[in-house]
Design brief:
The protein has helices at 2-10, 13-39, 42-60, 64-68, 72-78, 132-151, 160-169, 247-252, 290-296, 307-310, 315-328, 334-351, 354-366, 372-382, and strands spanning 81-85, 99-102, 109-113, 177-184, 189-198, 202-207, 213-218, 224-233, 260-263, 270-279, 283-285, 300-304. With 383 residues, the chain is an alpha+beta fold. The strands form 2 sheets. Strands 2, 4, 5, 6, 7, 8, 9, 10, 11 and 12 form a 10-stranded mixed beta sheet that branches. Strands 1-3 form a two-stranded antiparallel sheet. Strand 10 (270-279) and strand 11 form a beta hairpin. Helix 2 runs antiparallel to helix 3, helix 11 packs antiparallel against helix 12 (334-351) and helix 11 packs parallel to helix 13. The radius of gyration is 35 Å and the shape is elongated.
Amino acid sequence: MKIIFNTFKYGNARTKFALLLMATGLLAGFGILTYSLIVANYVASLAAILILVADVGFILSTDFRNLFFNSPKKKEKASKKKYKITEEETDDEEGFALEWVNTHKKKKYEEIEDNDTDEDEIPGRSKGRLSAREAEDKDEDVKKDAKKEADIDPFKLYNQKKYKQILVQYKVKQDHELILIDNCQREKIFQCPAILWKDKTTAYILLIEAEPRMIKYNMYDYNEMHIRVGVDANPSHEYMNFKEGSFLGKLFIPLLPNYTTIEDQNGRKNAYKKALYGIGPDIFCTSNSVKNILKVLSLNMVLTESKIQKGSYSDWFKRIYISRLMYRDKIFSAPEYQAQVMGILDQMAEKANDDDFANSITQMLLGGLIPQEYADYANFKRK
């Protein structure tokens, strides 16, 4: 039935005429038969039965597939190309948790024409194989194409229309958030705008590069946000594309990192530092991306590559230190930061043992994390 229905959309004039003839015969036969039964006209009934028998015979004798579709030979001619997967296509399974999804599938396909007679004319070479010299040339061409693609500035490619097209193409959910990835050494991501969303178990990150890439990972395998403090920075040379007034630049410029300035001992030379926040497998984002990340993912904050993390500081001290760091990076407002600190002190007063409580209060006071009145509050809460 589906084949017959689709014929009126895709069939030629011959097939449409055949179907119309069948339908007309059925309608005429049933119509005359109904009329003859109402008026009790047996001659009309006999004529109707003859029409229906003839029409049914015509239908049963018709090969619908040969009538409606091209023959196998035509289909074979229409498909002149076939593909084989080169050795470069083997999946790279090095234990990475990243699963890449690309429009090119990260695979290179070599087209082979069925009527390729040039190879057969070369003696000593089997069909479908390239010489060593040709293989080297092909590899060089692939490398050059990859380099050209890497050199393309995505900020010059995207406008509002193309941006919306990739949202549809990669099925980005409506409750997504914009993030700015500073770097991911493992996968060669550098100062890249991206889109973050999730489903029940998986986090998705769409990288807005010249050729978009999408990565995904299991959220239960990566439930921590790793904070790197005091990363060397150079504001005058970083994120230059974001400052040129492009569509992507205007969209992502609020997510640029916050910088802190450190003077040398003589007060003459300034050094710039920034904090980076890592999600998933070492994907480090800017500080101004963290609010958006936390709208999507529930993560525990962990210091990494920090003296505080490696030192003999209590977990209560580290939690307040992280809260202050996030306040300094404008992730928390002043009221939010105060609420965070008071909440940690409340928990410490209720759950910490005596030695842990006393050592933590001392460390916080000496480290300048809390003023004396906050220490007094914690002691009062403890009692």
